[in-house]
Amino acid sequence: MENEKAFIQELLHPKTRDAAFGKLLQYYQKPLYYHIRSIVLDHDDADDVLQNTFIKVHTYLKDFKGESKLYSWIYRIATNESLTFLQQKNKRQGFTHSEWQEKALAKLETDVYFEGEAFQLQLQEAIARLPEKQQLVFKMKYFQEIKYEDMSEILGTSVGALKASYHHAVKKIEEFIKTN
Q1: Once rounded to an integer, what is the mean pLDDT over residues 134-163?
Q2: Which of 8, 11, 137, 172 stands 20 to 30 A from 54 (CA)?
């Protein structure tokens, strides 16, 4: 968004709120979907989490203090919603995170919304074997090209720690691809 402060005022003003929120949806819907999808993997789950994210953004916009960028704030909500969704889903189904990852990977092969080929599936399998934090950092950096500074605001982690997580993730992925 070009002039974020003016846009936030539009979002908060009763006369311009609905139109501004429509712009926000239009601007963020697609990139947020892909961010959420990279975490939850399933298309239908991603749609549900995206809807919940926008409901929370709409509900809590009045509390946004502008201490971070609007982008970072929205992505933090989407990330937290995605992780919470997965935790609740795994708890309901009695899966550990790694068990869920294995099932999600198997499902990706038949997912009509997944556009990857054999290498993409191998990459997804390598990513699935990473610790959760490294997965998240790798996906945000590699697939979405999110800058470390923005990622730091979204995840509440130092830039140095994020760079280290990404570096370790890349090494583990390279090793997995070489040996499989």
Answers
A1: 94
A2: 137
